[in-house]
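Re: that backbone. Tokens:
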């Protein structure tokens, strides 16, 4: 594997980890956070904001996915 590929994989892993941790902190379950973190079209800030405004995490997942 080339250095560029390894660097890119490290960056992707770091971003996914950050998204996952942010979603856990917002109140999503591990399963919900993993699902949302790996969906490129899910806006992380919107996902966190929905829960912060009182939307149940399960409902937020249905809205977002």
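Recovered sequence:
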């Amino acid at each position: 594997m080339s250095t560029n590929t390894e660097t890119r994989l490290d960056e992707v892993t770091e971003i996914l980890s950050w998204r996952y941790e942010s979603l856990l902190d917002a109140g999503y379950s591990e399963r919900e956070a993993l699902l949302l973190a790996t969906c490129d079209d899910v806006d992380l800030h919107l996902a966190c904001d929905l829960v912060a405004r009182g939307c149940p995490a399960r409902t937020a997942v249905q809205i977002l996915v």
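The chain has a mean pLDDT of 95. The first helix runs from residue 3 to 26.
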